[in-house]
Write a structure and sequence with these properties.
Elements lengths: L1 H28 L5 H14 E4 L9 H13 L7 E4 L14 E8 L5 E8 L22 H5 L5
Antiparallel strand pairs: 1-2, 3-4
Helix pairs in contact: 1-2
């Protein structure tokens, strides 16, 4: 009960900050559309933005890519990524239970080049919609711990 109340309060605080910041940016930039349209555009971009590797990330040899990856992990640095909007990826539904996952990496379908691949995690019947989980929690074994903060 206390966790639900805390989550609701923090969501309301975040929403208030979002609205006040968007309003301040709108007043400063004075775009030719209303603040409500600006809010909708911002929410759309925030909901559709993905972190993807740079375009040339998979162009080099995997012989060098793997040691660089492990070296970055040892140094506790993330792999390079760019924030981008992936065309048509938002057509994958998210309103039902997820039945597919998303993989960014080398794909045999495109001749071993980097690609975004949807793969099934359960049987998908003919005519059934493809659904994904937007925060990818289904692919992580520690998903419950990433959604909630536990204090010991």
């Amino acid at each position: 009960m206390a966790l639900d109340t805390w989550q609701r309060q923090s969501y309301e605080e975040m929403t208030k900050k979002f609205h006040s910041n968007i309003t301040a940016i709108h007043e400063k930039l004075e775009p030719p559309f209303s603040v409500d349209t600006f809010r909708r555009i911002t929410r759309l971009v925030l909901a559709r933005a993905e972190h993807m590797p740079p375009l040339n990330f998979y162009d080099g040899s995997s012989v060098w890519r793997r040691p660089r990856h492990y070296l970055r992990r040892c140094m506790k640095r993330p792999d390079p990524s760019e924030v981008c909007m992936v065309l048509l990826l938002d057509l994958v539904n998210h309103s039902n239970r997820p039945n597919c996952g998303l993989c960014v990496g080398l794909s045999l379908v495109v001749g071993g080049k980097g690609a975004i691949t949807l793969y099934s995690i359960v049987r998908i019947n003919p005519g059934q919609g493809i659904c994904r989980h937007y925060n990818f929690a289904i692919n992580r074994p520690n998903a419950p711990f990433s959604l909630w903060i536990f204090a010991v």
